[in-house]
Structures are given as C-alpha cells and as structure tokens.
Design goal:
6-stranded antiparallel sheet, 24 strands, Rossmann fold, 8-stranded antiparallel sheet, 5 domains, alpha/beta, binds flavin mononucleotide
Length: 735
C-alpha cells in the first residue's frame, strides 16, 4: 500500500514537481544574493533617522518599507515624480529605483502557479500536498527497508538507482517536508482558508497640532530600523491622520505632531505564524536555510529519475502469472513475499512448471493469504527478507493474518536472501517456524536461495519434484539477460599437480574487423559478477548461466575471472576447454555490496583458491596506495599460487601493503588461511580498531572457518561480526 502510494503518484507528478522544485531552487538563492548585495543595517540606526533623511529628499514620501528580500525602500510622490527608491540604511541616501526583475517575477509565477493564475495555484497546492505525501511515505519505506526508524541513517545497499534514490531522499526529506508544509500553509492563505486578520480599529484622535519633523518623533526614534516592516506616512492634507508603524511585534499609530504612540495593536498570533511560515518557506531573512531548502529541492528531479528507474524495474520484474486457477480449485497454492519483485519471477517459473506437470496452481501475494489458500492441499511459500531480517513488502501482514485462519496444508518454504546480511533469509525462517508451530506437515525442510541463485532454485525444484513424484525442472533466469559475445584472449592454468585445476581466463570483446582492435567491453568493476551461459547440453538441456566474480574492471581492458574446474561441472568444463580466440556469451550482474568502502581506511582481504580473483582486482585498482592486507590460502606454493608475480609487483608498488599466504599441502608448515588470521590476531585487531573493512571471497567452508577465526579477533573491541556486517564493514562473496 505504502509503496503504491509512493510509486505511481510520484511518477505521474514528477514533471510538475520538478518544475516547482527547480524554480524553488532558483528562488532560494535570492536571499543569499540579497544578503551579500544589500547594504548592512547599522545596529544603532532608528526608524526616525532614516525617515528624517528620506523626508528631506522626498517631501511626498508615503511609505518606507524593509522588505523580506532585505532591501529598504521608500515610495514617494513628489508632485509629479512618483516612484519607489532603494535606500541606504546607513545614511538614508537614495540608491536608485527599486524594481523586481522580469526573470524573478517569471520564476516566482512559475513556482507559485505554473504561469496559469488561480488554476495554477490550485495545481501548485496539490503539488505541495503530493510532495509532502511522497517525502513522508519515502522516509517510511526507507525506514522499513533498513530495519526501522532508528536505522534510517544506516548505509543503504542495493543497485546504484536504489542507493541514489535512498541517499538523496533521506538527505532531502526534511527540507522537502518543511517546504511542502509551509507551501500548503501559504496556499491556504492565498485561497482565504485561514482566518482573516482582524481589522485595526484606530478610534484614535490625533492631537491635530502642526507636524513636527519626522526625524524628531520620539516613537520613531525608539524603534530600531532593523525591526521595521513598514512605516506609512500620514496624508499631508488630513491633519487628523497619523503615522502607522508596523514591526514584527505589531502595529502602532504615532501622532505626527507630538511623536507619541496613540495606540499599539500587537500582531495577532496568526500573523506571527504567517511571518514564520514565510521565512521557513522562502529563506528570506534566513539565507542559509534558504540555500539548504534550495538544495533539497534541486534533488527532486534526480529523485524523480531514479524513482522512475526503480518503478520500471519493479514492473518489469513482476511476471504475469498465466492460467492462475482460482484459489478454491487449486491443488497447489504459491504465496509470494517480495519487495523488489524478483521473487515473483521465480514464482512465475515455479507456477508454469507445476502447471505444465498437470497441477492446478494458484499464485498470490503472502499478504493476501486467505482461508481458501489454507484449505488447499499444498502450500508453497517463496519469501524474501528485508531490513533486519524482516518481511518484504508483499508479506508484511502474512504472519498476523495466518494466525487468524484455519487450515493445515502440506507446506514447503523457500527463502530468498543474501548471505552477506546478518539475518540470512530470516523472514522465511520465521514463516517456516510459524507454519510448523500450527502443525502443517512439511513437504520439504525450509531451504534458502542466496542472491537469486538459479542453481539453488533448480535444486529445490528437483527436491520438490521428488516429493511430488514427477520431474520438476525449474529453469529460471531472473531477467533474460542481454549477453555480449567475448573472446578468450589469454589463459593461465594452475593447480593441476595438486588436483585442483584453476584457470585465470582473460576475455576481450571480439576484434572489430574494420579497426582491427577489440571492441568495447561492457561496464563492470572488480567484485561484480559475470554470468556465463554454457552451451546447451543435449542430455541436461541446461543453459542456465553460472556466475563468476570478476577480477578486473572495464578500465583494465580485459574481463578476467578465476575458474576452478569442478568434476562434472558443465560451465567450468566448458571454460577450461576454451581455446584462445573462442567465444562465450556473457552478461554482467552488479554486486554493489561486495566492494571496498570509499575512503582511505585499511582493507583486509581474505580468500582461498579461486576466491582470490576479485581480491586481486581490488589490489590492482588501489593506485592511491591505501593500506591493503591480503590473506590467501592455496594448496601448494609451487602449483597453485595464483597471481604470484602480479602480487609481488603490487607489493613493490605499494598497491598491496602485506601478503600472508597459507598452503595446505606444502610439507613445510602446511596451514590454512584461518591459521594465518589466528596467528595475526593482534595486528588484525589493531586494523579493525582503525576502522578496517574486511572482504572475504571463496568457498563456504573457508568463509565459515574465517568467521570462527575472526570472532575472537574483534570481540575484545566490543564488536562482533553481525555488527560489522550490518554496517558494511564485513562483506562476503561466498559460493
Ligand atoms: C535493503 C535490503 C535489505 C535486505 N535485507 C536482507 C536480510 O536481512 N536478509 C537476507 O537474507 N537478505 C536481505 N536482502 C536481500 C533480498 O532478500 C534478496 O535480494 C531477495 O532476493 C530480494 O527479493 P525480491 O526482489 O523479491 O524482493 C536485502 C536486500 C535489500 C535490497
């Protein structure tokens, strides 16, 4: 619901909001420019000083005004010459005619009314209301993603569009909420929706004496010029008329002959409120605030653009479920818990495969769980996890609704998550536990899919097929990737002597026959993933992509991966057999969570075997020479020391600060990488104390051993790995 409120209206209004916001940004600079340009008002100057000096030059002066834009002006009609003049507050001297530039008038009109008069003013008010709604709902959505209001300032993970949208959104939200609230208040004033200002009732008789020189009037002498709003002069033709002096405090009537204050009407609360609201909206008289509000407004078009990207992606990711049998008639119900919609893609694949196998399948969002779903013989739950192990968007109400429903279908729960989060697939676990606690028989134990792995999903499908008594081949490609043809440019083979062949493979785009040089590579960074689609295997019919961590970035001019040959592995066998010049079909999948944090803080890189790939890429990219400490484990220094020469060179060039290797099959001092970590505990503790980020890449067993070795390293610092993980200081790329 919240997402629907935020998404579509945001897209629909993006253009109008961008116009209002950008014109607001332009206007917001005005108070700062005026602050610089307008002459300063001396602290000691009184209203009488300036009024006296102006009256001396302009006998027909009718009003002196200290305007919200900071300029002091006088309106006069000296028998024929009329005008409004800017006044030097220090001397009362004229500084030339006062005029608002056509450009400012145009932009103000654009900002307030889209250049369309009253209809435009209504549209601007609706825009302000929409901006308020978008800012508040955006903050709530972000809080939910990050694990609650208290977590709002945590690092934001996700795709670049997600990160930009979140980072800029939370920066701008307070300013946008303030601007839209105050804008709404001002619109209400424009449309007469606020109570009218009480009419002044000066049933006051002036003394009627001969007017004294204005510079000598005591009531004008006692008011500082900087407190002035407006001083209106009496009509010279009317001896009973008086001066009207308006300040922030109120309005006083001053006798033109005696200078006495005849009446003082304090400013009504509403008027003070109006003043405050105007200052908060325009930044007039508060130019720093003005600039901050302008900056927040300037982010609106970027938020609109990134929002559009996110919305389109989410739409594209949500498949149309074909042949969705009504829930009551279904033998199998699939419930989906998703936020980014990718889980819907998996659900679509599962739905189609089950339907093809003859099942009557109904698919729905977990939030919509009903008695009909729970009455089905079989319930399959596919659930992602967000925030601190919380439910995704389409499953937030599932557990509370489930508790109120009858029914005990046989269930299988499949969690979708990311191992680098401290609560891997936690929500799916909670769902499985809740279904278990109510006594639903289990079709399969709960399983978890890491980073949308098509292989893990296919394996689960295979297991489910076993239980259902038929084959269930789940071939899911999250978004049919657009592949690029790449050609093998070079290969180095390691580890054959120790039974663990690993190849470093370098690809370039095929040579362009016209230029004779390789074409451009797609954009990627070390640590991103390359999906490689192996040739279709006749027996398995399998053309699912396999993912490898990238050891290079586009800047290096090659796409480099380390591939361990796995017995029976379709893709690794294909890649190891590849000859220079032969091609692959590949696509890039960003992996923004597995990157060195920005800055110059130390990095601790830990890996084993082919896991060195992205770590070597991070070292290679470290031209700035930040401290980087690499721990790596292989089998034998003589056989599988990947990147040996390159790392030696990086050490010499200070791209790499220290290198600790461990070889498990070497006779003298065989060891694993976790042994090196344990032995180096004091040094590593000191690095973590300095704010080091730890990046781990390699097999699951190695990663678990590394976790066990690191816990005692960080514990004396009052830290643990889940804490480091949640702040992005411990990131893993594990397979
Ligand atoms: C902001 C954010 C928070 C996440 N939190 C978790 C988490 O706590 N545990 C987890 O296992 N996965 C977490 N993930 C990973 C998602 O669950 C995973 O990418 C899932 O496949 C997304 O499915 P969906 O696109 O259907 O929402 C998070 C992802 C994002 C973007």
């Amino acid at each position: 619901m919240l997402r629907r409120l935020h998404g579509l209206p945001g897209i629909a209004l993006a253009l109008a909001l961008a116009v209002t916001a950008l014109s607001g940004t332009v206007l917001s600079v005005q108070p700062a420019l005026n602050h610089v340009a307008a002459p300063a008002i001396p602290a000691s100057a009184s209203v009488a000083d300036v009024a006296g000096a102006v009256a001396a030059r302009h006998p027909g002066v009718s009003a002196i005004r200290l305007r919200a834009d900071g300029s002091l002006t006088a309106a006069f009609d000296d028998g024929g010459t009329r005008g409004v003049e800017r006044i030097d507050p220090a001397t009362g001297a004229g500084l030339g005619p006062y005029a608002v530039s056509d450009t400012t008038r145009f932009i103000t009109n654009l900002h307030r009314a889209f250049l369309m008069g009253d209809a435009g003013r209504v549209a601007a008010a609706i825009g302000a209301l929409a901006m308020l709604g978008l800012s508040v709902s955006g903050l709530l959505l972000l809080a939910r993603r990050l694990g609650g209001m208290g977590a709002l300032l945590r690092p934001i993970r996700g795709t670049p569009a997600q990160r930009w949208h979140g980072e800029l959104g939370r920066l701008a939200a307070v300013g946008l909420i303030l601007s839209s609230l105050t804008g709404l208040w001002m619109s209400a004033g424009t449309f007469g929706l606020l109570p009218e200002k009480a009419a002044m009732t000066p049933a006051i008789a002036a003394s009627g004496g001969a007017p004294a020189p204005v510079g000598t009037l005591s009531s004008l002498n006692s008011v500082k010029l900087r407190d002035l709003r407006e001083l209106t002069f009496p009509d010279p033709a009317d001896p009973t008329d008086v001066f009207t002096l308006v300040t922030a405090d109120g309005e006083r009537l001053v006798d033109a002959a005696t200078g006495a204050t005849l009446a003082m009407t304090p400013a009504p609360a509403l008027e003070r409120m109006n003043d405050l609201v105007r200052t908060l909206h325009t930044g007039r008289g508060a130019w720093v605030l003005g600039l901050l509000l302008g900056l927040a407004s300037a982010m609106v078009p970027v938020l609109g653009g990134t929002g559009l990207v996110l919305w389109l992606r989410r739409r594209a990711a949500r498949p149309r479920i074909g042949a969705n049998v009504p829930a009551r008639a279904a033998d199998t119900v699939i419930l989906v818990g998703s936020e980014g919609n990718s889980t819907w893609g998996f659900a679509g694949t599962l739905h189609a495969a089950l339907a093809a196998a003859g099942h009557k399948v109904h698919t729905a969002a977990m939030n919509d769980v009903s008695a009909a779903h729970m009455a089905a013989p079989r319930l399959l739950v596919l659930a992602a996890t967000y925030g601190e192990g919380a439910a995704p968007q389409s499953a937030r109400h599932f557990l509370s609704r489930l508790a109120k429903l009858p029914g005990h279908p046989a269930v299988a729960v499949l969690g979708f998550g990311d191992r680098s989060f401290p609560h891997f697939c936690r929500f799916a676990r909670d769902v499985a536990d809740a279904l278990d606690a109510r006594g639903c028989p289990q079709l399969l134990p709960m399983k978890r899919v890491d980073r949308r792995s098509p292989q893990e999903f296919a394996q689960w499908g295979h297991d489910l097929g076993d239980v259902l008594g038929h084959d269930l081949v789940l071939t899911h490609v999250a978004e049919p990737p657009k592949t690029t043809r790449l050609a093998l440019a070079g290969r180095e083979l390691y580890g054959e002597a120790v039974g663990a062949p690993v190849a470093i493979l370098r690809f370039t785009a095929p040579v362009d026959p016209r230029t004779g040089a390789p074409g451009p590579l797609p954009a990627f960074e070390a640590g991103d993933l390359v999906g490689i689609v192996p040739p279709v295997n006749e027996k398995l019919g399998d053309a699912m992509p396999r993912f490898y961590s990238l050891a290079s970035s586009t800047r290096d001019g090659v796409l480099e991966i380390c591939v361990r040959l796995r017995a029976g592995g379709l893709c690794s066998t294909f890649l190891h057999a590849l000859q220079p010049g032969e091609g692959i079909d590949a696509f890039i999948r960003e992996n923004p969570t597995f990157r060195p944090a920005k800055g110059r803080g130390p990095l601790i890189l830990i890996g084993a075997g082919a896991g060195i790939g992205p770590l070597a890429g991070f070292v290679r990219a470290n031209a700035a020479g930040r401290p980087v400490h690499l721990y790596w484990g292989g089998r034998s220094a003589a056989s599988d020391f990947l990147y040996e020469h390159e790392l030696a060179q990086h050490l010499a060039e200070r791209r790499l600060t220290t290198l600790r290797t461990a070889f498990s099959r070497d006779a003298d001092g065989s060891a694993y990488v976790q042994d090196r970590i344990a032995a180096d505990a004091p040094r590593l503790r000191e690095l973590v104390k300095q704010g080091a980020q730890i990046l781990v890449c390699g097999g699951r067993d190695m990663a678990e051993a590394v976790t066990r070795a690191l816990e005692p390293v960080v514990r004396p610092l009052g830290l643990d790995l889940p804490t480091l993980k949640s702040s992005g200081r411990y990131v893993e790329d594990v397979y």
